[in-house]
Amino acid sequence: MGGAKQTADLEQRGRTLFRWPDKFLGPPPGLKEINAACWGQFILVLLIFFFLVGAQIKNRSGIFRDWHCAFIYFYGIGHIANDYPAVRIYDYSLQQKVFNEINPAPEGFYGPSPYPPFVALFFSLFAHFPFNLAYVLWAVISLTLYISGIAASLKGAFPGERLKISLIFCFALEFCPFLVYTFANGQLAAIAVASVGVAIYQENCSKPIRSGLALSILAYKPSLLLLLIPMLVVTRRFKTLIGFVTGAAILSLVATAFTGVQIWPAYVRFLSVFGKVAGLEGHPGLKLARYIDLSTFSFLVPGGRSGIGLAILIFVTVTVAAVLSVLLWKSATAGKPAQFLAWAATLTWTLLLNVYVPIYDSILVVIAIVLTFRALKELEWGAATGWVALLSVSIFAASWVAIGIALSHRIQLLSILIGVLGLGQLFLLHRAIRVDPIDTDAALPVR
Questions:
Q1: Residue 300: which of 412, 408, 399 has the closest Cα?
Q2: What contacts 130, CB < 8 A, 6 or more positions away?
């Protein structure tokens, strides 16, 4: 009863804080008006985007080839997989040669491409096409994956509330880390959104093995699994874990069948090269402003790598990891809202408690926000929903200026806002566990 009363008090305070100043601004805008404004802005951004592309075509510079998009890396390793012995996928000098043949490096050299061999095999299919056509094909697939992942995580969340769903999709599509750094740049982060979204949908359908199989696609970037795999263990999602191991084994076996066993020692050796060249050992070559994890944040902010700065970083990391672990353990005996918040908090902190999270991977926060809204809707915590909505809009807005602010002021605003979201999710998860104990007849059977 005490927990419910405290929650009601917080709700009342939130309603007071979120009272619209209609005396000065008139009646608050409705969802229709907000939708119209959001989609109108999105269309304007797209028109500017296509105008710039058209200018490049008119000048015969080719779609984004002068922009040196990241798709060059994936197209290049696809070419190596097609034209050379498989083990040479992880020959850095050959990577440099092939990437520069596609388009000369803008800063003297290309960094290494450290993805597992099944990624090169997948993009070997694209390498059969001219670069421009392959880029467009991947852009279409990337957009489809992104929309599918968000749609899967939204499935059943807002039945009959089309305006809310429309608004979520609008903000998601206009999110700078997706539109610029994933979609236009040809990056792979949309795969992560699709993988996690489908995994959550399958869990919600009481199909944990399929959930794990979907999650295994994240093996394309092991750093994104840094907290997700422990989460499966701590929350006793053992069937999901079995599905994940099975899927990862299938990917590994397929890669081995096409490239041979020798590919794996070459891949492991190449990871050490990647750590040195990309700057993970001391960050000398890393473009710090383009990363959002707390480790990189400490390199960027003045004094972040001093004794005090490192002590603060270690304290925050250990404290958050410990609190998250305890809450995840307790969430295993709580209801659906706690399950959604467990996923949400894990995804959010995966972006921060990590060693290598470029800004494009932050699109996973969209899934985390959707799951947070789902939990709050079921809990009927209106004020908390308002706070999360405000924070979500702040993250969206900050994403467009975060790199500029980081370059000029040496502070990554996106990391701070996502951290605030993560702390809020931990608090909400704690409350959800206390006020929403599991109903054994209706609980989500995810173990």
A1: 412
A2: none
- Alpha carbon separation from 273 to 8, 36, 267, 280 (Å, rounded): 55, 49, 10, 10
Cα dist from 340 to 122, 300, 412, 423, whole Å? 32, 33, 28, 15
Q: Which residues pair with 334 in a beta bridge?
A: 437
Say which amino acid occupies 166.
S
Report CA 152 to chain centroid distance, whole Å. Answer: 15
pLDDT band for position 64 (50/70/90)? Answer: very low
Integer CA distances (angstroms), 122 to 79, 133, 348, 370, in order: 11, 16, 28, 30
Give the pLDDT of residue 362: 97
Which pLDDT value is given to residue 356? 85
pLDDT of residue 40: 87
Average pLDDT over every residue of 9-35: 57
pLDDT in tens, 304-337: 889 999 999 999 999 999 999 999 999 999 999 9
Would you list the DSSP string of 298-360? HHHSTTTTSHHHHHHHHHHHHHHHHHHHHHHHHHTTB-HHHHHHHHHHHHHHHTTSSS--BGG
Give the DSSP letter of residue 289.
G
**Count H helices, E strands: the chain?**
21, 0
- Going by C-alpha positions, the residue among 329, 309, 222, 231 that lies closest to residue 267 is 222
Distance between CA atoms of residues 52 and 74, nearest Å: 24
The pair of structure tokens assigned to 291 is 């990363």
* Pair of tokens at residue 217: 């696609």
- In three-state secondary structure terms, 437 is strand
Assign residue 111 a region: left if phi > 0, alpha if psi is -120 to 50, beta otherwise? beta
Prediction pTM value: 0.88
Sign of CA dihedral 143, 144, 145, 146: positive
Residue with tokens 């209609």: 22
Question: At 163, which helix (H) or strand (E)?
Answer: helix 162-173
Nearest in space to 400 (alpha carbons), one of 174, 78, 68: 174
Q: Per-residue pLDDT averaged across 262-275, rounded?
A: 88
Six token digits for residue 428? 């909400």
If 0-12 CB within 10 Å is exposed, 13-18 middle and 19+ buried, where does residue 192 land? buried
Residues 399 and 368 sit within 8 Å (Cβ to Cβ): no
Q: Report which DSSP code applies to 88.
A: G
Print the SS3 string covering 205-228.
CCCHHHHHHHHHHHHHCHHHHCCH
Residue 158's pLDDT band (cuts 50, 70, 90): confident
